[in-house]
From TrEMBL:
Belongs to the sigma-70 factor family. ECF subfamily. This is RNA polymerase sigma factor. The keyword Membrane does not apply. Residues 123-171 form the RNA polymerase sigma factor 70 region 4 type domain. Residues 19-84 form the RNA polymerase sigma-70 region domain. Keywords: Sigma factor, Transcription, Transcription regulation. It comes from the Bacteria. Residues 189-285 form the DUF6596 domain. The keyword DNA-binding does not apply. It holds the Pfam family Sigma70_r4_2.
Amino acid sequence: MTAEPIGAPDSRALVERVFREERGRLLAALARRFGDLDLAEEVTSDAIEVALARWPVEGVPPKPGAWLMTTARRKAVDRLRRDKTYAARLAVLQVDADRADHAPPADADGELPDERLQLFFTCAHPALPAEDRTALTLRCLAGLATPEVARAFLVPTPTMAKRIVRAKKKIREARIPFRVPGADELPERLPVVLQVVYSIFTEGYAASTGPDLQRLDLADEAIRLARILHRLLPAEREVTGLLALMLLNHARRDARTGPDGELLLLDEQDRGRWDRLMIEEGRGLVIPAVSGGPPGPYGVQAAIAALHDEAADVATTDWPQIVALYDVLLAITPSPVIAVNRAAAIAMRDGAEAGLALLDELADEPLLRAYHPYLVARADLLHRLGRLPDAVAAYRKALESAGSDPERRHLERRLASLNA
């Protein structure tokens, strides 16, 4: 197979696609090899720039990921040679500069090895503060921009940028190894890795910004990573629960938007478009996730998602059981966000007034002041109760916190109908 030159616009689009697909694997391999995330990020970007300059003329190589790895590795070796501060590290790492030009960076099939799992556990090292672990992994392995990571955790972008820089510095200075931990370390490290994978999925399930409600590439990537974890750790019930939860939610992806990309709520969705094979796979994982001991938060959430997916419609959903599961979840992991979801379920079981009372009790929670689902839930319940002036004010406040364009347009339509 030979490379053929292509037009510059097409080449840039192809490079960007390859970059999205290969960036995490490339970064993980370079970070493990050189022990420096900053260096790995820099030479990854350098390799992309070289590709943008050369591929339109020389053609896209048959194995673009391996090509990028070779180019990035050479860039790293050159940088280490030039930078005196890295001279000692170059010797310690025993990077053979001559072999770097000839040794294949890929496996026997010419594919770039997947070492992302090692980098996930490195970023989840207990030496890092919990908030820094997730932020760093989202930035480095999921490829989320710093503002997207900041929005996911409801903090200002400069604050998140400092966390990411601090985490990378800690890994470098403490010489935290890039490896999968041993069995004795796993219980401490695994929950953070699961949180990271789920954070990637939630950004894909409901994009924080942009023209689309969903970023299916991120959601698919999170599920793929969860499958890897499940294959490696089949006895870990929370790994099973997380995979089940994501599958049961992602099964609704095709029905969550209309023909023009508009947001469709649960009661508006055509359940015939839900992915039944994915639902069955997820349901099959729920039982082992919640059996054999006290359930974990992912297992409980997966059980809630299964009840939604099993129901013929919103009216026949088993809301009492969902409320009971939220009671369990709130006891396991007390959180105002979980309390919001529980209040919404109680509104479906006991009526809008009961749900609104619970939401109003949460009004002073700092985390919820700009939390979009909370603001929308409150506006919707005011609307259901016929308190139209209050609903208009609540929808306007929710509109200020809307991230994606479909969310914004959905609220604008609600406001327009109320004003009419």
